[in-house]
Amino acid sequence: MIEEEIVEYYKLLYLRGLSTLLSGNISVRSGDLILITPTSLPKPLLRPEDLVYIDFEGRVVKGTRQPSSEWRMHAAVYRRRPDVGAIVHVHPVHSTLLAERIKPDLFLEGDIYIGGPLAVVPPLQPGTWELAEAVADALARANVAVLKKHGVVAVGRSLAEAVNRVEVVEDLAKATLINLWINSGI
Ligand SMILES: [Zn+2]
């Protein structure tokens, strides 16, 4: 069941230090609806029944919780990218701080996994249509966007692909930092 898959992937993201207890959101496209994580609840403790189905206007179609406050971002990206089946948004520290300084070519497989350029979005108020549209614009030609002073949004055809992209970008950000240390002669 896809609900269980989302819950399990969230645990993995949390255990890898890519998400804090309450932050971030995950969704998958489900026909004309979006299956998305709820707001406020501790994410690694979510149960499949905590997830909600919403339409593209944010109305809850199935489920008892309130959707993530970033549902606009998910809706805007799915509208812009018919090929996208899953979206992951978390707040990994290294990626967020390094943003445009991340060097995808430090790993030979970096570009392959990311599958395009790394987009960067300026700091914008979370939960707004302004942020949602800026992220959708950025992801029109990219699979990962770093939201400055905020976090990362990764898309994929599948949930696994999107989660992997978050991991790869954070690893690349760490590698970029280590590379800076090496080159500074420490
Ligand atoms: Zn966020």
Automatic annotation (TrEMBL):
Keywords of the record: Lyase, Metal-binding
Superkingdom assignment: Archaea
InterPro entries in the record: Aldolase_class_II_sugar_metab, Aldolase_II/adducin_N, Aldolase_II/adducin_N_sf
GO cellular component, one term: cytosol
Tagged with keyword Lyase: yes
SUPFAM superfamilies assigned: AraD/HMP-PK domain-like
Pfam families linked to this entry: Aldolase_II (PF00596)
EC number: 4.1.2.17
GO-annotated molecular function: L-fuculose-phosphate aldolase activity; metal ion binding
GO-annotated biological processes: pentose catabolic process
Designated name of the protein: Fuculose-1-phosphate aldolase
Species of origin: Thermoproteus tenax (strain ATCC 35583 / DSM 2078 / JCM 9277 / NBRC 100435 / Kra 1)
